[in-house]
What we know:
Blueprint: H1 9-18, H2 34-43, H3 59-68, H4 78-81, H5 84-93
Amino acid sequence: MKTENWAYKEFVLEEVKKDGWALRYASEELRGDKEVVLEAVKQDVQVIQYISKELKGDREVILEAVKQNGYALRYASEELRNDKEVLEAKRICF
């Protein structure tokens, strides 16, 4: 697989739909693409550690992760770690 493929959104989307861990190889720009990240997180919440700093502050992304595994909260922005809705999702998860 060519390295430059990891800079193409369509390619990366297909790969993360098969295996969320593929996000590790995506370009930095695509690790900040909400659509790509949500697909990857749906496949494997542990990839949350590879997403961009901006998306660690995105409520939708963090909620998706925390609903699957409350420990994902540790990767959320400080603001979202104190967000009532996110904390409730974490409580329900456990």
